[in-house]
Amino acid sequence: MKKYTIDLSKIDGCGEFPCPKCRVVISPEDFTEERYSIIEPKVNGADLEEVELVCNICGSHISLIGFSLLEEIAPVELSQRKCVLLNPAINT
User: Fold this and answer.
1) Distance of alpha carbon 55 from the chain centroid
2) How far is Cα 82 from Cα 69, in angstroms, rounded to an integer?
3) pLDDT in tens, 26-45
4) How far is CA 67 from CA 39, 48, 60, 64, in A?
5) Bridge partners, residue 50, by sequence
6) Would you kindly state where each structural domain of the chain is located, as residue ranges?
7) CB of 39 closer than 8 Å to CB of 54
8) 36-44/25-26 β-pairing
9) Going by DSSP bridges, is the β-strand pair 3-7/61-65 parallel, antiparallel, or unpaired?
10) Between 20 and 30 A from 21 (CA), which of 34, 54, 64, 86?
11) How far apart are CA 48 and CA 92, in angstroms?
């Protein structure tokens, strides 16, 4: 199985991107786990470095990187996004 890497600092918008294989839109706003599931967040101290997820439509494994650069650009927005990615219940 091929593993894809997406650099979030290089995409426009609010963190949505198409799955590299099946093109289904993966969004941090989707809490249903219908389209993707988080496998493992990787942190270094307090910094989120990478999030591994799987597309539930085609089974592709995707690594999300580029969080540190995003934090420099928009720290408040990213802090909220970290909560969304790691624990959707925080945002209810």
Assistant:
1) 11
2) 14
3) 998 888 989 999 999 998 88
4) 17, 6, 21, 8
5) 42
6) 3-87
7) yes
8) unpaired
9) parallel
10) 86
11) 21
Q: Which two three-digit tokens encode residue 34?
A: 């219908």
Specify the pTM.
0.70
Res 48 pLDDT > 90: no
What's the rounded Cα separation, in Å, for the pair 11 and 6?
9
CA dist list (Å): 18 to 28, 31, 45, 78, 81? 12, 16, 30, 20, 18
Q: What's phi and psi for 85, nearest 5 deg?
A: -65, -40
Residue 56 has pLDDT above 50, yes or no: yes
